[in-house]
Amino acid sequence: MSALPLEKMGLLNQSETDVSNNAHHHQNASDKATGRKVASEDIYDHEISEPETPFHRIIDAQPQTMLHGQTKPLPPYLLGSGYVSNSYFVCRLRYLMYCMAFIDCVGIAAFWFTDSINDGGLYVEDARSSMSFRKARCVARGGCSDSCETIVVYGSLIYHMLPLVVLIGLPASGWRCFEPFERTEFSPVDSRQYLQNEQSRRHAENHESIEAVPSDQSTRIYTSLNSVSDSPMQVNQRSGGKKQNSTKLRRTAFLQICELSAVLVLWINFLIMLYYIYGLFHGDSLNCGYVQVQLYVDLAVIPFVLHFVELCYFFRYREHIKMQLGAFHEEDQTGGLKSAFVKTFHRRHLFKSKTTSFARNIRKALFKAAELENLRDLSYTLVSAQERLGRDFAARMYSNPKMRLRFFSKSKKNPLHAAAANGNVQMIDVLIHAGFGVNSLDKVARMRLSTGDVFLYFAKFFISDPVPSDTATSIYKTTLVTPLHCAVYMNQIEAVKALIAHGADVNKCAKSSNANHVVPPLFIAENTMIVRLLLEAGANHLLVPDPGHQNTLTALQLAYLSDNIPVARELEKWGGDVALTPLHAAAGANHDAAVRKLLKKKADPNSLGEFGYEGLHRRTPLHWAAVKNASSSLLELLLCGGNPNFQDRLGRTPLHWAASLGSTECVLLLLQNGADCRIRDASTMTPMLCAGRARLGTDVLFNHLIKYGADVNDCTLTGDTALHLAVKEERLGTALSLIACGADMHKVNQYGFRPLDNTTSTKFQFEMKRASGYRDILITATPTHVEFATKLKDSLERMNITAWRLDYVELEKIEDTSWRERVVRDIASTSIIIAVITQDFTLSECCLRELATAKEVGTPVMAVSTENARIGDELQVYLYTRQVVPFESAIVASTQSDAPTAYDHLSEQDRSDVKPISYLYDEAKYEAQFRLLLDGVRDEIEKQRKGQIQKQLSQNQTAMFETAVRGQTMFESLVGSHISFISNKEVTAGSGAEDPNSESTSKVSGEPHRSNLAERKYIFIAHGDCHRAFVRNLYERLSSCGYAVVVDGGNFNELPESSNMKERIQAGKNAILGCSACIVVVSERTAKNELVSDQLAFAEDKQRPIFPILLNDVKLDTSVISLLSYRPLYHFTTNVGFTASLHQLMTRMREILPLEGM
């Protein structure tokens, strides 16, 4: 197996497991043993990387070694009052412990420091003998103390549970040594690992499995690993299942002792309760007449009941911190006491061999990696196992378990079963190719035996489940609900829409005797579509219905507890979070008074969770306020030191969330208080890019961001701008707002797509084009036929195709050079031109200039006719007769109005004689002809779009992106690429040869030149400015044979170099009219050239002899060229000229092989 230095590939870091480190050291040892030197190229033998683009360089120019925003360091020993006040359960648990401790101390003191019962006290000398049930005969006028001693002893047992009471309450004391869970410091490495795990899940969901390499299974493991690690991080929200962390949450040893103490308290209280029931029917213990005894026992009832209250608070506190840290189920956390005990005391463990211990660690590491969906650790562990245990280790270690006595079996902890349960297709693929049996058996339902499981088993008898029952009748049991609750619970999507449309309150809670059911409709939604509808209507997904009690949960926690992962994903897209602190809840609910009250109690405005713990998503109260557009509480937090640039686990600041959810007021407040609008999250998204996905993005929001330094054309790693993202999300309002704020409609992404290319909705495209001034079609018509052009424009826009006309009045005021620049810019950005051909069309200089410019920049031209006008030579160079759509049949009559119009070439006297013409239409025939035109227009627009994308993809993308990054629009960078005019000097330069006529050639006028050409016969070569070297070679060979040759575009000493496309087209037309023969260079490139097509059609129309030259530019090796250089070549094509080519071949073959000799 080839060894790879994994740490150099960015796949190993300091936090890897011991098994991974062992595999790495073993790998290095293998390299030394074989004497192999690892070269720098070998590092990337199996690496899958994407080419770097300027988008990467833009983002890399803003290095980010760590996330913005850090909480203040925790006190080393004791957490202060600020942490206590900003907590749901700490205050309750702590103060209840103080109260119970005081009562217990009083009870213990009364028992030990008073006289005996007969002397008016409570002390019992022989407590052991007094614990039995007995009847005592009382002496006349004397006391009866034996029965009283029994109940005093049992009452004192409740008071003497003081150590257990204090022990259970110590996790809420604030002392760091009694913390319930181990703290882990968040780092950017954790963020990268978090996103890499999410990328692994996205690969699995998209079924992107890696091809197998049978010769080396470990190579497959590395390849699969690299495909995950090197993928771009584009995930903005969790897409995974139950597993939230890369490692399990670890309970402290003290918490586990508290759990056992809680179980002990339950048992003692249970035994005391049994005694009370038994004492009702046996003995006379309840007939004690001493007042002090009765008071002592009655007072013991208070701590007895409070024991259950304390256990309830302890359970709620434990569950709240556990879920806050991302462990929603008991199996998502661990204690570690069992493994520590086995390592220290188990005799079998002490005598195990190194191989057996290694196999045990491998089994544990593989199952842990598969359970947590950590593909990287799984791959490293598999490599290490194959090296130490052999390639068939899986078959030996994971054989089918045996059934013992038909009831008992032991689990093998097969990682393949865990991967299958999590739905991780990529991990399944890796394990099967590592030798795990696809049909292997294993015991999945294993019995967990930990202190937490024991505690939860007994606690469930008196602590209700926070997840409501899913039975159909449970929500109606002693519960008052709204119609919206009913529709949501029954998954009636249309009913939910109707109720919301009629003003239903999406945040109204039900009324119930069961606290679990006092929730708004969002908490019982199980359908992602319904959840989205409720959130769009303003449902508060950060609501904590019953803070500090049973329902200290958010909708996200309920979704995870119910294993409803699709709903959890939808909630997280909207900023859903787990319940954290009262300050978070007050900020999210916009209760500014509650926020001020907590801040006055020294609550940390940058708190990440209860009692100094960091919550699952690492969000501050500012994040919650931004998510819920709570501007009042947001301002209070900012004034008290809230960090507006604090980044959560995904690298998002409050400004990211406010922008992504369209909270304009919060965006402005954050920007005014120092929020940085250029910070990128872990997916390289800035607030501007997040705003592009906003459902309610407005131009006011974007203007705020731009005012404070945001770039409206900022892009992601793939080159998508905010406008790209808005179009992909089908956010029309957001897209129009971006366009109004200056977003570039022509900027392309890494794949060459403009924003318009990311949607198939013609309505969406039409609105964007109309808002930006971009037009699909330019209608060119004479001023006398404006009425028909306007009707045609309205018909096209009714079909969601944008159309426009040049303003002749404005054009007359523009100088000639400015006119040309404007017309070239406008026509080059148009997909197609429609010319309205009428009798006076050729009289309009503006119309002819538009057609010439269209030919120059490569914009196709279609024509419609209304007056049976003849297409003369002036128009044949621009369009074909077959491309004209006649509308004469749709015109019933025409009239001329008295309003005068204008022609730019007529005198003032003549202009008044030209009057506008209007038509009377047969609408049915008009629609029929319009449909013919519409089909052609749509085909041409789609053809232009695909051609533009293909052209952009074939070009050097890096150069294109650098042009766009400098601020130049895509249109400005591509206008030149449409121009097909190439002069003779460019042809010569392209061939690498000197121009023999460069010194003698001079600029001469066209007329003398045309008169000289008319005096002799010549050959015209049409080439479309393609194949420069071949054109020059053909020109020289024909000239050396005595032929006069004219090359299109300013031939060598034959035609002048045209200054623009109009002059060139006219010169080419005149040359074809006077030539004796026309040679057309036909190749893959010229076949797509409109200039060549037009000249070929014109020559055919004028009946000039045409000699097509089929140019094959296939690249041949030097050896092949040397073998074929002295032999004639016979050219064949599959679609034209086959018979002629075959005739040439057979003629030569008959010379060598006569038919008689065959």
TrEMBL record:
Protein name per its UniProtKB record: TIR domain-containing protein
| InterPro entries linked | Ankyrin_rpt (IPR002110), Ankyrin_rpt-contain_sf (IPR036770), Multifunctional_regulatory (IPR050745), TIR_dom (IPR000157), Toll_tir_struct_dom_sf (IPR035897)
Ranges: ANK repeats: 411-443, 479-511, 578-610, 617-649, 650-682, 718-750
**What positions does the domain TIR occupy?**
1019-1116
Arranged from A to Z, the UniProt key words for this protein are: ANK repeat, Membrane, Repeat, Transmembrane, Transmembrane helix
Q: Which Gene3D superfamilies match?
A: Ankyrin repeat-containing domain (1.25.40.20), Toll/interleukin-1 receptor homology (TIR) domain (3.40.50.10140)
SUPFAM superfamilies, alphabetized? Ankyrin repeat, Toll/Interleukin receptor TIR domain
Membrane-crossing ranges are 95-113, 151-170, 253-278
In its UniProt record, which GO terms are filed under biological process?
Answer: signal transduction
**Region named Disordered:** 18-37, 987-1009
Q: Which PANTHER family match?
A: ANKYRIN REPEAT AND SOCS BOX PROTEIN 2, MYOTROPHIN
